[in-house]
Amino acid sequence: MTSQPNNPATVYVVQAQPKGFSITALVLALVSIVFGFTLILPLAALIFGIIGAKKEPAGRGMAIVGIVIGALDLVLWLILGGAIFALFATMIGAGAVLTV
Fold first, then answer.
1. What are the boundaries of each domain within the chain?
2. Which pick of 44, 56, 77, 93 has the fewest CB atoms within 10 Å?
């Protein structure tokens, strides 16, 4: 009779950690650069990045990149919007008439 060893093999199952919010933040930030400056995409990237940084430690790097790019896009959008508003306000104040 042969005896079997008493130490059974231990199997460790490692589940993949969720990274959905972090990936979404990064993708939205990159899409907002490629498809122009809009208000919704960088704002959504910023929100998803903050949520991803808090809830998903495995995707923290992607979330931070999404936050940074989204914030930069948002700031550039606000600067561009302010410049266009100032241009129109100056034109109206100078008496320029806009015709279509």
1. 20-93
2. 93
